[in-house]
Fold this protein.
Amino acid sequence: MFAQGAEEETKKVPVTLLTGFLGAGKTTFLKYVLTEHHGKRIAVIQNEFGAETGADTAALIFGEDGDPSLAYVELPNGCVCCSVRGDLVLALENLMTQKNKFDYIFIETTGLADPGPLAATFWVDEELESDLYLDGIVTVVDALNFERHLDEKKEAGVINEAQRQAAFADIVILNKRDLVTEEKLNHLESRVRAHNAVARIIKAERSRVDLEQLLGIRAFDAQRVLEIDPLLVTDCTDDSHDHDADHSCHHAHQHLRHDQSVETFLVKAQGSLDLDEFNAWLGGMLWDEERSEDIFRMKGILAVEGHEAKHALQAVHNQFEVQETKAQWGSDEPRECRLVFIGRNMNEEELTAGFSALVKQ
């Protein structure tokens, strides 16, 4: 039912499904892929959890010369594995009307996505089956923070996204190896193996890997996915599924659901900020152990005093970095700072007031 010959697949466009928990380094990996010299024209579909900042877009679509450099499609707010899965199908169908412009597709999921239902898309949708094949599922693992999410206790019926992402992977990029000891790295590899005995594990810094190990590998095995979750095929091939009708496929999540305690909010303020003051405020907040445990992820686009370049913030728990991007503030574009928080038990009023106070008109 699921087997495809190599000759048949070469006529189709390969798709890599890129997963990994919040802040693991998925977008950094994509930026690396898009700037490496591998001779492939790559289209990207990106899904965000929570409010959109534009920070990842700025980091991705501008090359070294500052010019847009790829076919980029952004899915609407919502989790691509359930609430906007139909939009993914439509986005792929639309891309395939321009398939002469690219020869590879990367789908970057939100950090809270379950890869199983997404993988099922490629064997239950007849229109996609004729044009695409799933080349592999690549999961990026944050070596510094992986275990805290892997070991998180969930209530009955709630998925542990970190476990599912590790289990479904064909390739695991054990990222941020420079932030942990070799002993810790080996321990993490054994933890991944406990959830997935067959995936290839590649250790990396800043998501840089040998792309020959990732592109055109035909690693996806539908039978193995069904061994992990047999309900995927019965739920997602249900006759009631119609992505054109409601743009959703939540059947496969009836037996497992997302952790509803994870929330997100966006703060926006017109004006610019002093980078030293911002770093001091951010460090003081994230280096508080209790607060950094609850703030899983922060990302933002910042207008910095004295700089025409847009700055991007990336933060994971107590680690953060602000980098200048190639994108510039336009002469008629209002300077604005935008910051997204993702986590649980967050004091939205306090965080909003603290950030807004730093931004000056």
Q: What stands out?
A: Residues 49 and 110 are 5 Å apart (CA to CA). The longest strand covers residues 132-142. The mean pLDDT is 77. The domain at 10-253 is CATH 3.40.50.300 (Rossmann fold).
